[in-house]
Each structure stands twice: as C-alpha cells, then as structure tokens.
Amino acid sequence: MSKFVEDVRRAVACGDLHQRFRPHDVRQACPGWADYTYGVFLPKHRRGNPGGYAEYFVQTPDGSYSLIH
Fold first, then answer.
1. Which end of the chain is more exposed for a tag (fewer CB within 10 A), N or C?
2. Sign of CA dihedral 21, 25, 31, 35
3. pTM score above 0.70
C-alpha cells in the first residue's frame, strides 16, 4: 500500500480528516506531498478508475472521496 494512502487512513482514524474528503482536505490533514499529488492521486485510485490502478477510494456523487475499507 502507498505511503500516501497510509497517511490518509491515519488522518481519518485520528479524526484529522472526515470520512468524506476532497483533495484540499487531504492537503491540510496530510501535508508534505507534492501539490499535484492531492489532485491526481485520489481520482487515479478511485473505484472504477479507467487505468486499472489499485482502488483505495470511492468517489461520491458530490465529488468527495472516502476510503474503501
């Protein structure tokens, strides 16, 4: 599993990040990653992504994301 995903999971577990989040929320809760990471990683690894990448997130109808447990 990606270190980025581990950071997101940790932030959700300790309450620094809500169950549903947007890239900006992750940037605040998990600082230190390259700026583009926050906007690219979530959709790239969402359920049903067209590239067939590992699925860590589900995108909700309002555009926010949540972790796949």
1. C
2. positive
3. yes
Q: Which long-range contacts (CB under 8 A, 24 or more apart) does 16-24 make?
A: 19/66, 19/67, 20/60, 20/64, 20/65, 20/66, 21/64, 21/65, 21/66, 22/63, 22/64, 22/65
Asked if residue 50 lies in contact with residue 17, where contact means CB atoms within 8 angstroms, the answer is no
| Unique residue bearing structure tokens 């990040």 | 17
Picking from 33, 22, 17, 6, the residue whose alpha carbon sits closest to that of residue 60 is 22
For residue range 37-48, list pLDDT tens digits in order.
999 999 999 999
